[in-house]
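Help! Submission page says 'invalid entity' but I think these are all valid:
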Amino acid sequence: MRPMRLRRCQLAVPGSNPKMMAKAAGLGVDHVFLDLEDAVAPNAKVAARGSIIEALSTHNWGRTTRCVRINDLETQYAYEDVISVVEGAHEHLDTIMVPKVKNGRDVAWVDILLSQIERKLGLTKKIGIEVLIEEAEALMRVDEIAASSPRLEAMIFGMGDYSASQGIDEAALFGDSGYPGDIWHYARNKIVVAARANGIQAVDGPFPNFRDSDYFRLECERALKLGCVGKWAIHPSQVEIARSIFSPDPADVKRAYEGREAYEEAKRQGLGAVQVEGRMVDAATVRLLQRTIDRAEQISAAEGSR
Ligand code: COA
Ligand code: MG
């Protein structure tokens, strides 16, 4: 069984920056990933492993999911990133994030390496995997990737690298694509479909213009409407916006419980459909209401265990 973690917001934090890692631990965000990849300069990558182990082991992270993003599998860093971080901080680490995967084999490689380390250390807790879909090859093989490992918990749409890979203009990243409709629609939707069909979470990637909170909000809403469970933040100012947009509205939750109750009562009376405030509730609509209830219950269970 995969752990169902909250990922309404995943905060990116450079692994070479102890001050930001300390700050991130205290923000109460659902999920933080300490980065060894793009946020860390090549000459700081090896030392950042030690800084990350130190930050994971010494700060109080509360209920925050702790993740480390390793370098991509075509670099010379990736295998030692996994070995040093997992051996150094295993009980303080929940998942490994793998950027720029291209196929299911990439994920399987990380899975096998994690199994070896867990066996060596005698660990019972299994480290989860999250992957970034940010190469054209990855989008093409997203179904294969989504089904590649029982450790896989989430797929993230990384629109920055994805734009470079497909040949999309940089302006699109800032909301000015010049394309009619939403330029991310196809990729986002394809990722969500593959994720949902395989019982894993889809998460929307970063929006770099962190001072433009209106556009960030809009991007969160677009991702939510397609079925993403959350969005990245690259700056603390984005955390609360994502957390609130990806939390169900209390009025919707109340309506969902009432609709489900009315449907259960209808079934007891031998009816398959009933009207609640002028709307039909039947087996299909109850499924949608149940999703709202599940999201609300997941949040209150996680926040209750804080
Ligand atoms: N995580 C934790 N703390 C962060 C943070 C982050 N991602 N981004 C900013 N902060 C902190 C700053 O250290 C500062 O803390 P202080 O008030 O205690 O001094 C505070 O939040 C305000 O930051 P601000 O001055 O507005 O921004 P900055 O110039 O320090 O940082 C960036 C701007 C873009 C360099 C920074 O947000 C960052 O590094 N983001 C993540 C980049 C990254 O991980 N990229 C790869 C994945 S997309
Ligand atoms: Mg990237």
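Support: the input was valid. A stray whitespace character was the problem, and the output above is from the cleaned input. Residues 283-304 form the longest helix (22 residues).
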